[in-house]
């Protein structure tokens, strides 16, 4: 059952009416279903029943500490890409032994933060980074565990902006160079090379690229073991797609079967980094129609959410289903746009959608991943609150920003101050 359903003609998240939240919290807001998150996490994890595994939720998809605490309580670890994400994961009480740190540009400060937090491993992306991790660990009298992010040169067949496993992408170390780098890393005094990592892209709706990448990595692990590098963790990254519109997203079972086929009875711990797959369908952005406008060419609904709140439509031309919070049979064809001063500010374009009147509410669906985390303050718009619904109750897990939040970190140089 979906986390969002109509009850008495009003769209609910679990058992809470979105209209009620709008009345009490105001609009716009993001809303996440706690049971939707639990269900997706459990399904993903259970698909690998019987195998040693750690599912590390990709914090970049939705980093709210309320959401992270919920997933942490389900046994999730965290895939992080910055010091800020590490801070979030730790603050949410996630298990440090289940934190993996990816990213092509980790700074010295971030590396030291990871080492002092004793995370499971760094997914290193270059020899220079391996050297820096070794230096930092040396200065801290520690040993840092690493995996090397291998670029398997596999076509993920997804949007070019979110495809990462091809030779031409900036990510990882080419597979034919990785062995050399493992042998080098193993010779360093403050590094323990324990894992191998890849992440070939996001929103994959085909299974074969995952299978191909896993097979390439398993082959490399065997070769490395022969050369005295004992790999304990095989981290296959994230990327499993979801249904936004009419795409067929593979089931957890299909995904797990494909991986198991390649892994067979190898003895290592599997690591996964799903983001979108866990939270994407569990969230919605609720927004109010401020005005309606008809031009000779087109019909517009001008709503109070904008591209700064949800960047995906303007950035990737991404499709998000739009539902009327008060169910209606009436339809309109046109655009749902925000108040921002540029034409790329749309949430839905040239579509046939429910016709919500001025003052009514729309829910922009499947925005639980890469929604709030990609939000900005563009046009000095305070960022919207995040609400976590659990059964009959809702919790404000992030309050609406105020105007003072906008200017809080800023300052006027003394010589320009008027008071
Ligand atoms: N692991 C690594 C190393 C990653 O780079 C990513 C996503 C993930 C895991 C999680 O991928 P997922 O399971 O969510 O597909 N902003 C884009 C998505 C960018 C994904 C970047 N990396 C969007 O809105 O579609």
UniProtKB/TrEMBL annotation:
Binding positions for substrate per the UniProt entry: 276, 312, 316, 342, 370
Reaction(s) catalysed (UniProt annotation): meso-2,6-diaminopimelate + H(+) = L-lysine + CO2
Cofactor(s) of this protein: pyridoxal 5'-phosphate
Superkingdom of the organism of origin: Bacteria
Database matches in PANTHER family: DIAMINOPIMELATE DECARBOXYLASE (PTHR43727), GROUP IV DECARBOXYLASE (PTHR43727:SF2)
Subunit structure: Homodimer.
UniProt-recorded name of the protein: Diaminopimelate decarboxylase
Record organism: Denitrovibrio acetiphilus (strain DSM 12809 / NBRC 114555 / N2460)
């Amino acid at each position: 059952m979906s986390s969002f359903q109509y009850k008495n003609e009003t769209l609910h998240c679990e058992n809470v009416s979105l209209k009620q939240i709008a009345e009490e919290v105001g609009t716009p807001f993001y809303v996440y279903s706690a049971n939707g998150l639990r269900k997706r996490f459990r399904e993903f994890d259970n698909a690998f029943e019987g195998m040693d595994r750690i599912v590390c939720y990709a914090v970049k998809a939705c980093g709210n500490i309320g959401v992270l605490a919920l997933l942490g309580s389900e046994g999730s670890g965290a895939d992080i890409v910055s010091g800020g994400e590490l801070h979030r994961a730790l603050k949410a009480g996630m298990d440090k032994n289940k934190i993996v740190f990816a990213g092509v540009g980790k700074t010295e400060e971030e590396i030291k933060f990871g080492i002092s937090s004793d995370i499971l491993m760094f997914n290193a992306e270059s020899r220079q980074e391996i050297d820096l991790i070794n230096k930092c660990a040396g200065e801290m009298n520690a040993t840092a565990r690493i995996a090397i992010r291998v670029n398997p040169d596999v076509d993920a067949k997804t949007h070019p902006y979110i495809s990462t496993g091809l030779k031409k992408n900036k990510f990882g170390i080419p597979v034919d160079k990785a062995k050399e780098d493992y042998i080098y890393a193993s010779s360093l005094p403050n590094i323990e090379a324990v894992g191998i990592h890849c992440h070939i892209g996001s929103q994959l709706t085909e299974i074969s690229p995952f299978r191909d990448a896993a097979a390439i990595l398993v082959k490399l692990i065997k070769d490395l073991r022969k050369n005295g590098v004992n790999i304990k963790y095989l981290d296959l990254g994230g990327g499993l797609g979801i249904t936004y519109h009419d795409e067929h997203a593979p089931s957890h079972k299909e995904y797990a079967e494909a991986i198991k086929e390649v892994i067979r009875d190898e003895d290592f711990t599997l690591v996964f980094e799903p983001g979108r797959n866990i939270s994407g369908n569990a969230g919605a952005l609720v927004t109010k129609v401020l005005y309606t406008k008809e031009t000779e060419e087109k019909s517009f609904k001008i709503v109070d959410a904008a591209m700064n709140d949800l960047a995906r439509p303007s950035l990737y031309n991404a499709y998000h289903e739009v539902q009327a919070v008060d169910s209606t049979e009436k339809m309109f064809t046109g655009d749902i746009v925000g108040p921002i001063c540029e034409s790329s500010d749309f949430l839905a374009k040239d579509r046939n959608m429910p016709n919500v009147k001025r003052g009514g509410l729309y829910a922009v669906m499947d925005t639980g991943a890469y929604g709030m985390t990609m939000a900005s303050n563009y046009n000095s718009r305070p960022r919207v609150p995040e609400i976590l619904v659990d059964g009959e109750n809702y919790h404000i897990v992030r309050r609406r920003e105020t105007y003072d939040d906008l200017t809080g970190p800023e300052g006027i140089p003394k010589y320009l101050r008027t008071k």
